[in-house]
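Q: What would this chain look like folded?
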Amino acid sequence: MKSATIYHNPRCSKSRNALSILNENGFDVTEVRYIETPPSSAELKELCKLMDKTPLEIVRTGESLFKELGLSKNDNKSDDEWLQILAQHPKLIERPIVKIGDKAIMGRPPENVLLIM
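A: My prediction, written as structure tokens:
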């Protein structure tokens, strides 16, 4: 059986839809509920690398917490600083992220996961 890991929030419809797509396609899915079990900055760095994205590109900038923390997309922060912020405040991680083998993708829209199967 093929395996996949999904970093998601089960309260999010996009996350639930991406999980359904994986299940419908016969994947053995490991769910990482990142709000409860936040990925480390090293894990996030690896996911960014696999998705060819910068840490800032996986930040939920529209989240109220983003503003509460006084953050801005124009902050002059390094990638490592953004990774630390995401690890400390997992609510800011864009969701879902799906990893299959040595590939990962942002599941927005959920059908994106089909691109790495």
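The mean pLDDT is 96.
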